[in-house]
Amino acid sequence: MSPEDTLPTRGGRFRLRCWGARGTVPSPGQRTVRYGGNTACVEVRSVHEDLIILDAGTGIRTLGQRLEPNTPAHVFLTHRHSDHVIGLPHFAPLFDSSRAVHVHCGNADAGTTRALVDTLLSPPLFPPLPSVLDRLNVQGIVDGAPVDIEGRCTVHRFPARHPGEAAVFRVDDAKGAGVAYAPDNELDYASTDADVIAWRRGLTLALHGVPVLMHDATYTDQELPTHRGWGHSSALEATRFAMECVAGLLVLFHHHPDRSDEQMDAIVQECRELVAYSGSSLRVIAAWEGLTLTV
Ligand SMILES: [Zn+2]
Ligand SMILES: [Zn+2]
Question: Which domain covers residue 119, as residue numbers?
Answer without folding.
Answer: 3-294
